[in-house]
């Protein structure tokens, strides 16, 4: 490994280090993949009404989709191996992608393409996403100082992963593994082969131990006591201490639940659109706008396609269940920590 720091630290886990902006990078990549899928679908739908084939409407988006998947797999392997210098390749890629999409967006503006055309909106979104991913990459360089600086920042693995008895890896895996509980596979396979015991389960991470959460709650409670007499005492003070110590994860759980409930409306809406379009018996789009020799469709025309609605229905249900399970998980974990603290 070129300038690897992992060779200096001996731990038994492969995944332990998160670069700055880890979760934001994964979220942006998921959004990027979804927008690229929409761009591919938009190109196919608009090309379907043309007399001749225009591969440039969807082939570049398909290649960008594969490149985005490659980038996140590449990043994951660099992160688990702690080879930050190899991230320089992603820095160049995001820069080139941002520049080329910006040129395309400017060309659309020069030719009178506006917000009424879906392709214009998707291109604008891609410019923003590539710009944000570029900013995340620059932030990693700024924080870790792995290139362009004389002294790179040295990092140490979390204390939990230096303890051979800790096997609860949820805080240290990537966002996709957290969302799909992929990190549990090893434990499930072990439990399937033979009965499990406390030794197999391992010790709790430091953040989930009763002593850690007691200290957290006690500090919040003492802060309430030390306030002026205007601050309420008794049970109200305890409730405020609980909210101060454990309010953030509960707010996160509530946010996940709200998102899941909002996505629940997507199912009936998509099914209603599909039934309406099938009932008409003619699913052919007749776009009126033709610029630069190709048709440009609007968002309304795009969403009038039953196949597009079916794909959107699939993604909506997938995200709904993911957010719902994330809400349950965070709420249950916070309840365990709160009960241990009390």
TrEMBL record:
The chain crosses the membrane at residues 26-45, 57-76, 82-99, 120-141, 291-319. One of its GO terms (biological process) is potassium ion transport. Keywords: ATP-binding, Glycoprotein, Membrane, Nucleotide-binding, Repeat, Transmembrane, Transmembrane helix. It comes from the Eukaryota. GO terms for molecular function: ATP binding; ATPase-coupled transmembrane transporter activity; sulfonylurea receptor activity. SUPFAM superfamilies: ABC transporter transmembrane region (SSF90123). The keyword Transmembrane applies. InterPro entries: ABC1_TM_sf, ABC_transporter_C-like, ABCC8/9. One of its GO terms (cellular component) is membrane. The keyword Membrane applies. Belongs to the ABC transporter superfamily. ABCC family. Conjugate transporter (TC 3.A.1.208) subfamily. PANTHER family: ATP-BINDING CASSETTE SUB-FAMILY C, ATP-BINDING CASSETTE SUB-FAMILY C MEMBER 8. This is ABCC8 protein. The lineage of its organism: Eukaryota, Metazoa, Chordata, Craniata, Vertebrata.
């Amino acid at each position: 490994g070129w300038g690897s720091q992992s060779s200096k630290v001996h731990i038994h886990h492969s995944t332990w280090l998160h670069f700055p902006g880890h979760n934001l990078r994964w979220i942006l990549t998921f959004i990027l993949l979804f927008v690229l899928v929409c761009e591919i679908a938009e190109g196919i739908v608009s090309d379907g009404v043309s007399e001749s084939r225009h591969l440039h409407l969807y082939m570049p988006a398909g290649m960008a989709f594969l490149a985005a998947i490659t980038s996140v797999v590449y990043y994951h392997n660099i992160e688990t191996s702690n080879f930050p210098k190899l991230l320089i390749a992603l820095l160049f890629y995001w820069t080139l992608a941002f520049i080329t999409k910006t040129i395309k967006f400017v060309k659309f503006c020069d030719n009178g393409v506006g917000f009424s055309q879906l392709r214009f909106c998707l291109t604008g979104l891609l410019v923003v996403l590539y710009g944000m991913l570029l900013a995340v990459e620059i932030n990693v360089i700024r924080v870790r100082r792995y290139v362009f600086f004389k002294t790179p920042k040295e990092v140490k693995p979390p204390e939990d992963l230096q303890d051979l008895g800790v096997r609860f890896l949820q805080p240290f895996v990537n966002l996709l593994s957290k969302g799909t509980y992929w990190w549990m596979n090893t434990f499930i396979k072990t439990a399937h082969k033979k009965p499990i015991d406390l030794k197999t389960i391992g010790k709790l991470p430091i953040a989930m131990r009763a002593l850690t959460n007691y200290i957290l709650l006690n500090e919040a409670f003492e802060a309430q006591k030390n306030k002026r007499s205007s601050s309420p005492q008794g049970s109200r003070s305890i409730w405020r201490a609980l909210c101060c110590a454990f309010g953030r994860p509960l707010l996160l759980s509530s946010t996940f639940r709200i998102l899941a409930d909002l996505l629940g409306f997507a199912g009936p809406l998509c099914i209603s659109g599909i039934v309406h379009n099938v009932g008409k018996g003619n699913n052919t789009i007749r776009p009126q706008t033709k610029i630069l020799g190709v048709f440009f469709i609007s968002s309304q025309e795009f969403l009038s396609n039953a196949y597009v609605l079916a794909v959107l229905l699939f993604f909506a249900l997938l995200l709904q269940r993911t957010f719902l399970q994330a809400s349950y998980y965070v709420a249950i974990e916070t309840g365990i920590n709160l009960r241990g603290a009390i």
